[in-house]
Amino acid sequence: MAKNTWQDLIIPASIIACLFVLLVPLPPFMLDLLMVGNITLAVIILLTTLNIKTSLELSVFPTVLLAATLGRLVLNVASTRLILTGASTQGTEAAGNVIESFGNFVAGNDIVVGIVIFSILVVIQFVVITKGSSRVSEVAARFTLDGMPGRQMAIDADLNSGLISQQQAQQQRQELTSQADFYGAMDGASKFVRGDAIAATIITAINLVVGLGYGVISSGMDVANAADVYTRLTIGDGLVSQIPALLISLATAMLVTRTSQNTKLANQLIQQLFNKPQVLIVTAVFLGMLTFTQLPKIPMLSMAVGCVGLAYLLARNPNNDAEDSNQPDQPNESTNTTPPLSDLLRVDAIELGLGLRLLSLAKRENGDNILNRIQTIRNQLALELGIVLPEIRIRDNLKLAGNQYEIRIKGNQLASGMLSVNRLLVIDVHPDLDTELPGTVPGIGGVANGGARWITRDQRSKAIELGLQPLTPVEVLTIHLKDTVRKHAAELLTRDSAHELIEQLREFAPAAVEDLIPNTLSLGQVQQVLRNLLAEGVTIRPLAEILEALSEVATQIQHPVKLTEHVRYRLARTITSGLIQNNEIRMISLKPELEQRLADAINYSELDLEFNLSRQIRDTLCQELRRHTESDSQEQGTRILIVAPEIRAGLARLLQQEYISLPVVSSRELSRETTIQSHYQVSLQNTAPSGATNPSAPFMHTTNEDFS
Length: 708
Known about the structure:
By secondary structure, the protein is α/β, with parallel strands linked by helices. The chain folds into five domains: 14-149 and 162-266, no CATH class; 274-316; 345-490, 3-Layer(aba) Sandwich (Glutaredoxin), CATH 3.40.30; 493-570, Helicase, Ruva Protein, domain 3 (Orthogonal Bundle); 575-707, 3-Layer(aba) Sandwich (Rossmann fold). 59% of the residues lie in helices and 9% in strands. The protein is built from 25 helices and 14 strands. The strands form four sheets. The protein has a five-stranded mixed β-sheet. Strands 2-1-3-4 form a four-stranded mixed β-sheet. The protein is elongated. The two termini are 70 Å apart.
């Protein structure tokens, strides 16, 4: 705790110290200490920059750069105060020993030499290093920000294909955001270095001109003496400030010019610049040829011998291969070909297996690939069903035919199909399709069944003229994958995913969650209700409304099926809106005596319900309802089976088991504004259509009791 407290005080104490130095004159020995500390900090920053592997390891550098620049400017103010106030009486010792030593030793006791060295340092820093690093920072920030959408899509594609986990994807997104923030901050921070060089030049000019005038006019010094003292102190002050500034500018330039490779700069320099013995031999030969000229022979021969010796050492070490120099250490594949046991035990929630000929559909080089479509599927199902799909792992499966694919959910194959990579699919039962589009190939499996045919890409325009919609192989696979996942969405809603949805809701509607979970219902009971809704295609996106509906009856009802029916009643408007066609619902109903018979056959167990119907009644009822479903397909319309609330759940379960795609809605779930058109009334004694005198005449549903 004490350590953290002291660390928290470092920055405030430093800022207060800077203000103190600006306002209060410092004694010369204190200025010496601060000047040496400034040089030490610059050396530490430069050496740290040389030893990091990536720029993000020193993400605090923009702040450090600002702090170092502020510290140098504060020291310049303090030294200027001492020079102007004490040089007339104390001479060159007025600003401390460090500035005096730099003015005498570094400048060689020659004022002209000092001025030249200071000017050269300013030119190097301002014109070369600072200008170049500013440009590199600007370009790096621009390219990083422009490339963020593409890199984020690549991360999402890797996540969807199963190449990385959710945690790894989150870490990569954080690294991408940190990199963009870093280069953006460096783009602005590099301007501090440029401004520091300009400020140092101006401060030096002020010290020189004002000091000379102050010494001659106010202190009565002769011109020669004043010029010697003030010029020497000014040059010493400029040098002691510009040398650490130059080191930090060099560190800034090295940091922004680093690549994204995870290797130290020294290792990159040695491995990439001195890893070719042939280059060193040619260099040695060139230096040897220069000895025949008027150039000094001993330095040339010394460097030539050094190049030959280094080439000999590199030739004896075969590990310095340029192709592997930038790669991190990896285990030998030949010694670790068996996957870990954890991978063997893992069962992927959704797996897409592709034959060898279909692997091109998953390559990112293609603009339209399955990886991008998977993200679209996730977004669409999140909007339509209110669930977040788990990652979809894409695998190459040698057991499949070359153009075959399969869709597995929790390890079980639930769908498969065949794709023609170089063709387009049209779905049509037109009898003259072969005549209009010769050379078509019948579709096999998936959405390609039922009259679909593969056409050549050259026939696309002709198919569009015929009113057909050609689909690419990626679109066919996307449609099949989406339909399969939608159909089995209830299986994909695991306990963890349900918990994640509820926790996200807790941030926006905490009362809806806290009133229900876990005091009244457990997470498992809520999950079962949500799965029951998804099994019949009801969206769980209005999760807050669902939890509120459960809270209303959870103290009296604990059975998951009965809880689901109450939730459906609360979601009546949502359910009905998805079934309306042309502002009406086409209705199928059951005879009252048949409904009563079905009600007597329903028994609720502890967690589920049972439908105890005889096989004959079951088969006859399903045959009649299946006939209506098939007629719906022919008439391009959908009918809804509307029954009493007491039998809705059991009848819907029966139709699911018999694979009859007929929506089952109770009379309680119909909103009062719904227009219902009655078409059929099913009876086991008479399968012919019956019902109203004029079946096609619509009527308004005014009360829920009309069909109860």
